[in-house]
Amino acid sequence: MTAAAALKQPAVKTALSVDKVAMHFGGLVAISDMTFSVGEGEIVSLIGPNGAGKTTAFNVVTGFLTPTHGDVTYRGQSLRGMKPQAIADLGLIRTFQRTSVFPNDTVYDNVLIGLHRRGRVGVLPSVLGLPRVRRLEAELKQKAAELVEWVGLGRRADDLAGSLSYGEQRLVGVALALAAEPSMLLLDEPVSGMNASETHTFVQLIRKIRDRGITILLVEHDMPMVMSVSDRIVVLNYGRIIAEGTPDVIRNDPAVIEAYLGQGVKHA
Amino acid sequence: MKLLLSIVVVAALAAVPLWLSDPYLLNALITTGIFVIGAMSLNLLLGFTGQLSLGHIAFFGIGAYVSALTSLGFSVSLPFGLHVVHEPWPPLAGFAIAVLVSGLCGYLVGRLSFRVRGAYFVIVTISFAEVVRLVALNWVELTQGPLALTSIPPMQVGFPGLGEFVFRTKLHNYYLVLGVAVACYLLIARLVRSHVGRAMRGLMENETLAVSIGIDVTKTLTLAAVVSAGICGGAGSLYAHYIKIIDPEVFAFINTVTMVIMVITGGKGTLAGPVVGGLIFGLMPVALRPVMAPEAQWIAYGSALIVILFIMPRGIVPALMQWFPRMKPVTAPGFAKRGVEESA
């Protein structure tokens, strides 16, 4: 990390740092040079117009893509070459834009599948149904029911996840991700497809998640939502970072206004 | 309710030899039972991980050959002047080794092909079965090739203090197959309800999401392949010691297709599916034999397959669960609501 970037950091410890990352798909440059970091317990948003490279950045951080250049570090450990499930084991858990649930299972079973990281026991003990495994299973079921309740889907626990509305499926996705016991949660456009009141509830949920000590990185289009929930915002355009700072700074940044509204706004 | 039904079904199956003494029918039940075990193992892969193994009979055949050779003994010359002589071991050891060797083959096939999956897995399994068939056909010194392995001893189990029990008659073998089938059913049931089973479901439904919450794809799928192949190998061992003669025809593609038909018509992804489908399609040729010419039997068989899948595309068991919603532990939304209204 450069000295200038280090100076910009707040006093909190850095959780995730993305250092000079570039991602090329053949000749297409999805991300040209991206450097930013997220402190422990922060809520940081990654915004930018469509095609700016936000989701690509997410995929790089969570190991679904290997960056062409640069490094991603989580709590001091380089993620280079790690498989997604190994990164998940570090506590870095993401949600997805579209496919956020296991559609043919109930909401409750979805969360139970999400508890996989916590429920790992040997195959033999679980087939034999040893008392220790039974106790663990009972704990997991309890935990799943609590989580479903916690994200506010208690009423829907026994419905198939695929039959829920988009907004509710997002909540299932979050419950699933929380079940994997993240220390950092990456949310990919969590409120798209939600109406205003659902979004409002979701913002409160994000704050509740942070209060559990979970760091949050958010990709989102919904500006009012981003402005109200974020501690810091990173703005991407054409694969590079054009601005970074608190919501107030971003709101008034000319480069950001230009990226979103185009040049013409000056004359308006 | 479900438990009660299972007990009733097992008890009814156990009571069959009490009123059925016709050896031909008993034989049909035993071979069907062995194939049902094979179908259950296939269902673990196809129904619970979504991977279609079109060479599943390879594991069955390997189990049959390994078990037969272990209990018959063999003597083969290998390259570099090696000469391996194996003295006959008891059939039970053959059974155990058959399960292990088949499981190992499942591991290898799984490791090789689960990196790519889908159609590639199908192709790898077909090729694997064909390669194994050719080995069985051409390694005459070991397998007798088309001359077949004969005089395979019947299964034999030693009980401490009670001496050896030999499964000599059809009646003995009927209960042996029934016992193994119930054990396999319970094993699969336990497995798919454990955290491993949940990981499998997750992978089948939404692999990207499953990976993101820390589920290891290759490990989970390989485990399913190992258990599936091991069970199928066990079924093959039972087959060898019951029929007492095996030749490379055991690897015929049609045998895999039969298992797939049993799983699909019964309902893949349900525990009872392969049992129901297996009993129907295993016993149908027997039921048709007195009333139809052999050619007509195949037409009837195919028609039954089409009709069942036309009326119940997801298979018999899921369709029944839909018609009798109370049987279903986890209900679809519509049924859940209806249940609430009824109780109110």
Produce a short descriptive summary.
The complex is a heterodimer of chains A (268) and B (344). By secondary structure, chain A is an alpha/beta fold. Chain A contains eleven helices and ten strands.
Please describe what this structure looks like:
The complex is a heterodimer of chains A (268) and B (344). Chain A is α/β, with parallel strands linked by helices and 268 residues long. Chain A contains eleven helices and ten strands. Chain A folds into two domains: 3-101 and 180-267, P-loop containing nucleotide triphosphate hydrolases (Rossmann fold); 102-163, no CATH class. Chain A is globular. The model of chain A is unreliable at 1-7 (pLDDT under 50). Chain B has 344 residues and is mainly alpha-helical. Chain B has a single domain, classed as ABC transporter involved in vitamin B12 uptake, BtuC (Orthogonal Bundle). Chain B is built from 15 helices and four strands. The A-B interface holds A 62, 64, 83-85, 88-89, 93-96, 99-106, 109, 112-117, 119-121, 123, 126-129, 133, 137, 140, 158-160, 163, 173, 176-177, 179-180 and B 187, 190-191, 194-196, 198-199, 201-202, 205-206, 208-217, 223, 330-333, 336.
Which structural traits does this protein have?
heterodimer; A: 268 residues; alpha/beta; Rossmann fold; 2 domains; four-stranded antiparallel sheet; 11 helices; 10 strands; 39% helix; 23% strand; globular; disordered N terminus; B: 344 residues; mainly alpha; ABC transporter involved in vitamin B12 uptake, BtuC; two-stranded antiparallel sheet; 15 helices; 4 strands
